[in-house]
């Protein structure tokens, strides 16, 4: 369970918690609060190739009802379609500038950064320079960043993505609180 400090009351991710019924006013308010919170993705939004038809046939019927509050991040399967056009066309401006795929937004006391681990992340790259400038400009007390390829993993199927190290370093240098 990941929660922002209670005073901000805006950033919560919960596992295994459902609201069973909206039969009471309290439950209706709880359901409404959950539907106001953003949803973020950490890439590979559809398998296998991130095509427009895969977004229409697989994402839309399941998570599509949350599209207006989704803050996506692209994964390598989204880039199996040239330029990740299925991803950028489906999510539109919510995915950040087309072809770039990294952006930030504020949510209560949190500064939230969605990064793109499918393009250059090297020290001095456009994305790394943007990240440093973005972190320097925020006045929010808490920072969360997310993207697809992890630097650290316990998986035997996927090796750590050491190319993300410059992004981690920038986040460390600016005292980020959470990296997903």
Q: Which CATH architecture is right? A: 4-Layer Sandwich
Kindly provide the name of the CATH class. Answer: Alpha Beta
Mean pLDDT, all residues: 85
| CATH T-level fold name | Purple Acid Phosphatase, chain A, domain 2
Relative strand content: 5-15%
Form type: globular
Question: Over the alpha carbons, how many angstroms does the gyration radius reach?
Answer: 17 Å
Helix content: 25-40%
How would you describe the overall organization of this protein?
The protein has 180 residues and is α/β, with parallel strands linked by helices. The chain is 28% helix and 14% strand. It contains five helices and eight strands, in the order E-E-H-E-H-E-H-E-E-H-E-H-E. A hairpin with a 2-residue loop joins strand 5 (103-107) and strand 6 (110-114). Residues 1-22 have low confidence and may be disordered.
């Amino acid at each position: 369970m990941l929660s922002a400090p209670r005073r901000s009351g805006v950033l919560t991710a919960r596992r295994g918690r459902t609201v069973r019924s909206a039969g009471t006013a309290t439950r209706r308010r709880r359901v409404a609060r959950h539907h106001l919170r953003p949803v973020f993705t950490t890439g590979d939004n559809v398998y296998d190739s991130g095509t427009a038809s895969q977004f229409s046939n697989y994402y839309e019927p399941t998570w599509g009802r949350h599209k207006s509050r989704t803050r996506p991040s692209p994964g390598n399967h989204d880039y199996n379609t040239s330029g990740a056009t299925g991803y950028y066309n489906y999510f539109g401006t919510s995915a950040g500038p087309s072809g770039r795929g990294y952006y930030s937004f504020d949510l209560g006391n949190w500064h939230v950064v969605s990064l793109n681990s499918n393009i250059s992340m090297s020290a001095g790259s456009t994305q790394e320079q943007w990240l440093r400038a973005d972190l320097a400009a925020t006045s929010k007390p808490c920072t969360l960043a997310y993207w697809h390829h992890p630097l650290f993993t316990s998986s035997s199927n996927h090796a750590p993505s050491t190319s993300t190290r410059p992004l981690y370093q920038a986040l460390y240098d600016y005292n980020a609180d959470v990296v997903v």
